Amino acid sequence: xxxxxxxxxxxxxxxxxxxxxxxxxxxxxxxxxxxxxxxxxxxxxxxxxxxxxxxxxxxxxxxxxxxxxxxxxxxxxxxxxxxxxxxxx
Length: 89
Hints:
Elements: H1 5-41, H2 44-64, H3 69-88
């Protein structure tokens, strides 16, 4: 366990950051789920709106350091491919 005052403070900071990051990650998952539901519904307009929101939320998570840049880009790319595939069908 942390002994020094600096180490104790670091533990407190990590706990606070962890809570913030959990909330952000959860928010991203919510928007991804909404996009999946919109795809399942089969309405291209709703899916497009959900895609824009999901992309925005993913990229925000990237800038906040919750998700790595490449991970965010890969996920957005896959979402875009799903949207394009749905629009073509």
